[in-house]
Amino acid sequence: MQLTTIRNRIRTEFESVREVEANGDFFFMYREEEKFPFATIVTSDNDFDSVSNLDRDGFYRLNIGIDKPIFQHLFGSIPSKPGIGGYTGSGIDFTREDTLFPHPFYGTMYWVSIVNPSEGSYPQLKGFLDYAYGKAKASYEKANPAP
Question: Which Pfam families match (predicted)?
Fold first, then answer.
């Protein structure tokens, strides 16, 4: 799936989504939320995160925040360490395309990732996006009640 395709789907399939671009990466927020995206797309390596080798032409990684029970069902058997970067020493190949894996750095916070997802992976990803969007919307509306 092309990067533009996944970006367009997130922007059009969910109401009131705001896309913020920073250094070529994309952060998808609900309305005016400033701090907590429900999904991100990373398009290149940086000093903090280079485990997916995204500096290859045309490569990107979609990241989505999901819930603990689903995350544990998917990845409960994979060993991790507490905190940021908890999955970096787990033996996962974070460069593999179209394969769902725990986010290398934020997996311990129940984020999942996939490098260059295919069209066939989208139905599962859409379910994760639905959950993440719903959580972001509820959180925003709780913090910003309608008058």
Answer: DUF6194 (PF19694)
Length of the chain: 147
pLDDT tens track for 6-56:
999 999 999 999 999 999 999 999 999 888 999 999 999 988 899 999 999
129: left (phi over 0), alpha (psi -120 to 50) or beta: alpha
* Residue 111 belongs to domain with CATH number: 3.90.1150.30
Helix (H) or strand (E) holding 72: helix 68-75
Q: Count of alpha carbons within 13 Å of 69, Cβ hemisphere only?
A: 1
Task: Enumerate helices (H) and strands (E) in the chain, giving the number of each.
Answer: 3, 6
| Overall domain count for the chain | 1
Output b/e per residue, 128-145; b: 16+ Cβ within 10 A: bbebbbebbbeebeeeee
In contact, 38 and 135? CB cutoff 8 Å: yes
Please tell me what DSSP assigns to residue 64: E
Return mean pLDDT, the chain. Answer: 96
133: domain range?
A: 3-143
For 62, 75, 86, 143, 146, the CA distances from 112, given in Å and listed in that order, are 8, 10, 13, 25, 32
